[in-house]
Amino acid sequence: MTATTEPLVQVRNLKKYFPIQRGIVIQRHVGDVKAVDDVSFEVYRGETLGLVGETGCGKTTVGRTILRLYEPTAGQVLFDGVDLVSLNETKLRHMRQRMQMIFQDPYASLNPRMTVGSIVSAPLDVHRTIHSKNKNKRVDELLEMVGLNPEFVNRYPHEFSGGQRQRVGIARALAVSPDLVICDEPISSLDVSIQAQVVNLLEELQRELGLTYIFIAHDLSMVRHISNRIAVMYLGKIMELADRNDIYLDPIHPYTQALMSAVPLPDPDIQKKRKRIILEGDIPSPANPPVGCNFNTRCPAARERCFKEDPAFREIKPGHWAACHFAEDFTQPDKKLV
Fold first, then answer.
1. Across residues 254-270, what is the average pLDDT?
2. Burial class, 276, CB count within 10 angstroms (exposed 0-12 / middle 13-18 / buried 19+)
3. pLDDT-based confidence at residue 140 (cuts at 50, 70, 90)
4. What is the value of pTM for the model shown?
5. Whole-angstrom distance between the N-terminal and C-terminal Cα of the chain?
6. Class of the 7-234 domain?
7. Longest dimension (CA), the chain
8. What is the dihedral of CA 120, 125, 129, 130, to 10 degrees?
9. Domain assignments of the chain as residue spans, ordered by start
């Protein structure tokens, strides 16, 4: 299934702040960790939106806040036109049939005291989407769908490898036939050979079932392989969002250019000629982000305006968005950092 022009998810000015409190008896609110700070994007039906960035930039928090596993501090999350933020628990539970998540650690996300059959059938019990007589048949279908033998239904998670456990997690996510699946770094803890198998499985399931993915990951090459569009995050904000080829071949934001310069190329001659951007300094604390642009402390092209004014996230070219005051300068080949 190819992506359509109809958005399934619309995230508008989403914020998630974690309060910082001090005191033992009387706790005082002394600040906030701005994990997600004014993020906006859309995900179209049938597409895969890749979400990349350094550790701690807020990728996972975005995914969890969309599903309201974390309650948003501000903003809207429109799912098929319905604002998830305004729903009560009963209505949200009904909507959650259409939204599922594949978690990062297959060793921690499966209950070790439950059999595989119980794990996969748990969403069916919660949402009561199928008659109890047909539940075992549905579980067998789901295990076959993800490449596992249905005879494993009575085994426990510790009897499986990491890749097999992740397949169980995928089967559990697909049990209630969702429209949206948020993949939270589903391959980061797996061997490289197993990573390719899991990614190929996700692509096959997307074609067969018409799924929409938000794919959170660190591996830039793998994200390019599986995604239609890619959003690059830094310190709680989206720096750039565009088609995967535009992000890799024609990045605009200085941070994205630095990331792309670190991706190795298969041609050694081109690799030797390419300039590598080394960012200096450490990522600032999300509890005390810089004034102005979040990237100004490490940006090799920062100017006076960058330290005073927060750049707007705007469309620089058709379908290509960036949060940089001087983004138009970096669209010119002679002005690029790489």
1. 81
2. exposed
3. very high
4. 0.91
5. 35
6. alpha beta
7. 68
8. 80
9. 7-234, 263-338
Q: Minimal CA–CA distance to 44: which of 74, 80, 69, 98? A: 80
Q: What is the tens place of the pLDDT at every residue in 273-295? A: 677 788 888 889 999 999 999 99
Token duo for residue 154: 């009575």
Is the CB of residue 156 less than 8 Å from the CB of residue 116? yes
**Residue that the structure tokens 């604002």 belong to:** 83
Backbone angles phi, psi at 155, to 5 degrees: -85, 165
Half-sphere exposure in the Cβ direction for 284 (13 Å, CA): 20
Three-state DSSP string of the chain: CCCCCCEEEEEEEEEEEEEEEECCCCCEEEEEEEEEEEEEEEEECCCEEEEEECCCCCHHHHHHHHCCCCCCCEEEEEECCEEHHHCCHHHHHHHHHHEEEECCCCCCCCCCCCCHHHHHHHHHHHHCCCCHHHHHHHHHHHHHHCCCCHHHHHCCHHHCCHHHHHHHHHHHHHCCCCCEEEEECCCCCCCHHHHHHHHHHHHHHHHHHCCEEEEECCCHHHHHHHCCEEEEEECCEEEEEEEHHHHHHCCCCHHHHHHHHCCCCCCHHHHHHCCCCCCCCCCCCCCCCCCCCCCCCCCCCCCHHHHCCCCCCEEEECCEEECCCCCCHHHCHHHCCC
Q: Which amino acid is at 161?
A: S
Tell me which residue of 72, 286, 103 sits closest to 186, measured CA to CA.
103
